[in-house]
From TrEMBL:
Keywords: ATP-binding, Developmental protein, Differentiation, Kinase, Magnesium, Metal-binding, Nucleotide-binding, Phosphoprotein, Serine/threonine-protein kinase, Spermatogenesis, Transferase, Ubl conjugation. GO terms for molecular function: ATP binding; magnesium ion binding; tau-protein kinase activity. Its cofactor is Mg(2+). This is Protein kinase domain-containing protein. One of its GO terms (cellular component) is cytoplasm. It comes from Dendroctonus ponderosae. Residues 21-280 form the Protein kinase domain.
Length: 300
């Protein structure tokens, strides 16, 4: 392949080398970007997102990218991908971030299948913590999906890709609605698909419901091939009937799932309520009941 057709010119890579990083093999590709494995002079591994400006387009470069950079440089949480360095040249933007050896959640589920309930809880809880952290800062992710949830070598869960993230308040602290269609249709709430102004935080909640559904079923909750039929299915709460047929999952988990995939915005659960949901305490309560049962038996 000629130098003109190279995704990133060699001279650009040499500049990165002077900054102490080495660009390695490609581990992911997008429409206008790719992710490469990178190492620094100490041998530490990073994922390097390389964005080609010309391919990205002016709307992304002038609107979405500045938002993303502003947000990712201001946040730090154990369950959010940490960006350590951003470098920009005339043609390319480099973002050096956490390297997640085990890939994304979708890949993991495709390989190992759906999760039993306790495993789903183990993976879902840190995701809830990450979203709660963002919402407390009035930040909405707007693209929560299995492909943007990554697994570290120690199976630690991390939320990444803040390309559609935005603040939920204006300069005066007033709550603002969103009008932009963001993310993937398969994870989109009915208000997004209907093209009306929406609360970006509540969009995140719906997407969390889709992720939880995929965790426990290894399938999508809605078919996005026919958007009109998809909206109808969402508004009819057809998913509620589906979960009734799951004998291996608790009523608490089903209740949480249905509360997340609630089409009525006024009834859809908030992230604060999710953190306090009884499903997350169920394991603790079961252990307590067993302990009390053993204690009572020993006294007889």
């Amino acid at each position: 392949m000629s130098a003109k057709l190279d995704f990133v010119a060699r001279s650009e890579h040499k500049l990165v080398g002077k900054m102490g990083f080495r660009i390695g093999r490609t581990i992911g590709k997008g429409t206008y970007s790719k992710v490469c494995l990178s190492t620094n002079s100490k041998g530490d591994k990073f994922a390097c997102k390389i964005i080609r400006k010309k391919l990205a387009g002016s709307d992304f470069i002038e609107k979405f990218l500045p938002r993303e950079i502003e947000i990712i440089t201001a946040i730090k949480h154990p369950n959010i991908i940490q960006v350590y360095k951003i470098m920009e040249t005339q043609q390319v933007i480099y973002m050096f971030m956490d390297y997640c050896r085990d890939g994304d959640l979708l890949e993991y589920i495709r390989e190992y299948g759906c999760f039993p309930e306790e495993k789903a809880k183990h993976y879902f809880r840190p995701l809830v913590e990450a979203v709660a952290y963002l919402h407390d800062l009035d930040i909405a992710h707007r693209d929560i999906k299995c492909e943007n949830i990554f697994l570290m070598a120690n199976k630690q869960v991390k939320l990444g890709d803040f390309g559609f993230a935005r603040m939920c308040t204006d300069a005066y602290g007033k709550h603002v609605l969103s009008d932009t269609f963001c993310g993937s249709a398969a994870y989109a709430a009915p208000e997004i698909l209907k093209g009306i102004s929406y609360d970006p935080k509540m969009y995140d909640m719906w997407s969390l419901g889709c992720v939880l559904y995929i965790m426990v079923s290894a399938s999508m909750p809605f078919d996005d091939l026919d958007v009109k039929r998809m909206i109808k299915s969402q508004l009819n709460r057809s998913i509620f009937t589906v979960t009734l047929l799951w004998p291996d999952y608790s009523l608490q988990m089903k209740n949480l799932l249905n509360s997340l995939l609630e089409p009525d915005l006024h009834k859809r659960i908030t992230i604060g309520a999710v953190k306090q949901h009884e499903w997350f305490d169920r394991g603790h309560l079961l252990k307590l009941k067993r302990f009390l049962s053993r204690s009572t038996t020993s006294l007889l």
